[in-house]
Structure formats: C-alpha cells, structure tokens
From TrEMBL:
InterPro entries: CE1759_FMN_reduct (IPR023932), Flavoprotein-like_sf (IPR029039), FMN_Rdtase-like_dom (IPR005025), NAD(P)H-dep_FMN_reductase (IPR051814). Signal peptide: none annotated. Residues 8-159 form the NADPH-dependent FMN reductase-like domain. This is NAD(P)H-dependent oxidoreductase. It comes from the Bacteria. Keywords: Flavoprotein, FMN, Oxidoreductase. It holds the Pfam family FMN_red.
Amino acid sequence: MFATEPVRIVAVSAGLSNPSSTRLLADRLAAAARDRLDATQDRPVDVRVVELRDLAGDIASHLVSGFPPPALEDALAAVTGADGLIAVTPVFTASYSGLFKSFFDLVENTALTGKPVLVAATGGTPRHSLVLEHAMRPLFAYLRAVTLPTSVYAASEDWGASGDEYTEGLPARIRRAGGELADAVSGGRAVSGASRTPGLDDEVVPFEQQLAALRTA
C-alpha cells in the first residue's frame, strides 16, 4: 500500500501574464523532476502547479481578514503537504514579486521545515540573476526549508539559447535542477547531466514558439 502513495511535487508560479515565462519555467522544472522520478523509482508522481495570479484576491483577503478563502486554503495545504516544492517568481525591483512574497507570508514558518525547495526566477536581463541568492534563499532559509544547490534563473535571452563551452544552456540547467529535486524527495543517487544522451529537450526552440504552445495547450 505504501508503495502506491504518489510523490507529490508542487510548483508555485507567480507570473502575472497568461501565458508567462514564469509559468513556462515552472512547467519545465516540474517536468524535469517528474522525468527523473519516473526513471528512478516505481511510485506514481503527482505534479500540481499553483498559479498565484488566480489567487491574488484571496491572498489580499487573507492578509486583511486572517481567514483564507477555500481556494487559497487548498493551495496552502498543497504546498505544505508536498514532498518537494518548486518556487518560481518574476523579478520586480531587483527582488521577488510582491504577490510571491505575500503568498509565502501566509505559510506558517515551520510548515516547510526540511522540505526540499527548488528556487527559480525569470527576468528581462541576466543582471538580476543574483535575486536567487540575496532574496529567495534567505526567504526559504527563514521558512526552514532545504534549498537545493542548483537554482535556475531564466532571462529573456536564455529561452532558445544553447549555451556555450563555458556555461550550460537553460535546458541543461533545468534538467540538473529537476534531477536534484527528484533525488531529494526519493533518496535517489544524482546522475551527472554530462552522462545524459542529448534528446529533444536540447533542441533550440524560439521563445515566441514556446509561449504559443502554452496558448494552445
């Protein structure tokens, strides 16, 4: 019976537009974690994405009243009950968005204790990539979560770029981070990204085409 319990991965996306690069990154990271889990263990994998833009009014109401509406209560329960968490925010004013922070302000400060968290962010320029280190890691350290070694920042120019001999392209970073999350929740052994046989994920797909796919999904 125990073996049939699913591994629960929850991705929190704070993107404001629809579609958004933030949601796209959350989906890609969740898919990478699912792929690793499917390859390394027999338990089913349950992936859920929490879109904060759909909960903005509920978040504001809870901050004022102290009582979460049902949809927000369900989202908070999903986050705190997950085996592994993916947290993705757009960068606003050199930090995480207000919507992202407001949501995690509603999470009890012990509810994520020991939970593996993959942090990621999107922005228009690579200059904001340090938001992962100076803002997001401290936030989840306060919440007593375990942030994974690899964090992922995706600037506009990273989408559809294959990287170079000194840096990994975005698909490789997504694979590595998703693999770390999968290994953290399952106790599996990490597999070097260099040993992976290149596949379709390595193909360079223009950003506009990736967003268009979200519109038709």
